[in-house]
Every structure is written in structure tokens, then in C-alpha cells.
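Crash report, auto-generated. Payload:
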Amino acid sequence: GQQLNQSPQSMFIQEGEDVSMNCTSSSIFNTWLWYKQDPGEGPVLLIALYKAGELTSNGRLTAQFGITRKDSFLNISASIPSDVGIYFCAGPYNNNDMRFGAGTRLTVKP
Amino acid sequence: NAGVTQTPKFRVLKTGQSMTLLCAQDMNHEYMYWYRQDPGMGLRLIHYSVGEGTTAKGEVPDGYNVSRLKKQNFLLGLESAAPSQTSVYFCASRRQGASTGELFFGEGSRLTVL
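Recovered output after restart:
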């Protein structure tokens, strides 16, 4: 089945720093999604990408759909303490199933 | 708005016991899903439903059963719990016509099987 590999597994950064994380796949995806999970909560959709090469922003977050359609990147600018959480990439496996990466755990030190 | 609500939030079971997790959504969504989340493995789909009265298997269905008797509810059952089913379970829903990935998740149910 399709595998999604996220890196890094965890990040410890200082408030105000920029963050970059990525996700790679063993096969092509037609859609890439990025979710954030706050501690003790369910994941929440941040950004959805539908076209190879697409660059989409949501506030301080920017995500890109890789040209090869096998990768995606998420950047967070000027991090703040509430950015803490686990960030998951995901892609549709079929019409009703998603494959999720293992997540990047972000810690922001004030 | 309640969105997706899961009950119970926490449960401890002994091996061999049975239990049911309830998911309720008030958004009139057609599609509902049960995922499990384990450390270092992301979320994996257990079962899903594309409408009232329908269910289908996901990636890791063994040891679980589901029912969707009402559109707003999706139940996940464990007939004979095993320690390998210790996990955090998430229910999600999606409206018809939305992208596959536009899921709304509940807050999760943490299950420990001793």
C-alpha cells in the first residue's frame, strides 16, 4: 500500500523561528492534505492541495504540492506557542480512505 | 455547534471484555469513519460508512465491528478486546461532495486493554 514518510519526526524550536517539514510518498497522490492535532484533540484540516506545483497559504502556513506528485512541504513562519502540536500529511488512498503520515511533533519554546 | 462527538472519552477494559464506542455528528454528513491512532504510525482506517445502513472495511478492520443504523450515529464495537487494541480511536465525518480529505474529527476515545 501507499506509504507516507514525514520528516522530521519532531522539532524543538524557539518562538519566532520558521519551521519546515515535508512528506514523501512511494507513489503518486492527486491530493495532499495537512492536518494539525492539538494535544488531547482530534486532527483539524489546515490546508488542502489539489494540483501539482500548487502553493497555498493559510495565514502563517504555506504548503506546496510537489511537482513529482510524490511529496509535499509545509512551512510555518514566525512560530508562536499555539503552533505546538502534531502535524500530519495525508493523501487519498481511494474514494473513501486516507493514508496518513506518522506526524511531525512540534514544540515551541517561548 | 457540537460537530463530531465521541463517547466515552476514556475506557479501561480487561482482555476478552466487549465494549462499544459511539460517534455522533450533527452536520448531516453522509460519510463517517473510525480511525485508530498509535504512536509513530499516524491514523489508520478501521471501518467506514458511506450512508445510513452501509458499512465497509478499511485498512485494519480485524477485531472490530460497526453499525450505522442512523445517519448521525456510527458505532464501533469490540467483541473481545485484546491488548493490541489499546489505542486512541477517532471518529470522523465528511459531507457528500466534499474532497476525500475534508474530514471533521472528534476529540478521540482513549482505550486501554489490560
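Post-recovery validation: Chain B touches chain A at residues 4, 31, 33, 40-45, 48, 50, 56, 58-59, 90, 92, 99-103, 105-108 (CB under 8 Å).
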